[in-house]
Amino acid sequence: MTDLWFVSALAADKKELDDLVSALGENRLSLRKPCMEGTRTAILQKIEDEIENVNGPNMIWIRGFPGVGKSAFAASVAIRLQKRHRHVICFRFDRTKSTTITTNALWRAVACDLARLYPSLRKYLAQGNRELILSDVDQLFTSLIEMPLSMLNDVPLEELPVIVIDALDECGGFRHNLLEQRDHSALLHTLQRWVQAAYRFKLVITSRPENRITKMFPVSISIHVNIYRSNFVI
């Protein structure tokens, strides 16, 4: 009887998660290939040290011009953390897929992974929240990210997942129209809310050093790791 109850509970739990993922409409791209084995280890260690620094800013920004390997760093950071049994939530923007890989898609994907990791959050998110289908990014962020994260204050810092967002600057595509421009602005606004809220979760992002991003996330509130072809870091 006990075994039957256990199997039934597992089935109900799986259905709850499957229904939630379906409602959220999870949509994401895999990260690109990592750095070659044994290369750029000093920079990667610097990034890991910043992630482990519980008193440091909650955003680590890997910056560099096209072709310096920012996406490879994002993938390498994720792999290195996973090898240490650290949970990592990954998301990659692509300017050629700006109609589907949007700010909404990012936070829905993060919510899906949080639901997979924490049953208490899964139950909260599965309670028929109408916000699951909202297109307003601010409300979506509040419902899917802000409220759930506030429920994880008792999770040890070393067990919290790290969120890796690659190609931040490619959100909104080429920004040739108002819709794309709005999506990019919405992303920066939600990230600003993340930093200002001082969440204990560490956020690792990669992008070109665009002026607008630099102004919103100066070194006073985020860690900048500048990548060059020579592997020199400031």
Concise synopsis of the structure shown:
This protein is α/β, with parallel strands linked by helices and 234 residues long. Helix content is 47%, strand content 10%.
Provide the CATH superfamily: P-loop containing nucleotide triphosphate hydrolases
* Count of all domains: 1
Number of DSSP strands?
Answer: 5
Percent in strands: 5-15%
The major β-sheet equals: 5 strands, parallel
Account of the protein in words:
The protein has helices at 2-24, 41-52, 70-83, 103-117, 119-125, 137-149, 178-197, 211-216, and strands at 59-63, 88-92, 162-166, 203-207, 223-226. It is 47% helix and 10% strand. The protein is α/β, with parallel strands linked by helices and 234 residues long. Strands 2-3-4-1-5 form a five-stranded parallel β-sheet, with helices on both faces. The model has no long low-confidence stretch (mean pLDDT 89). It has one domain: P-loop containing nucleotide triphosphate hydrolases (Rossmann fold, 3-Layer(aba) Sandwich), CATH 3.40.50. The protein is built from eight helices and five strands; from the N terminus they run ααβαβαααβαβαβ.
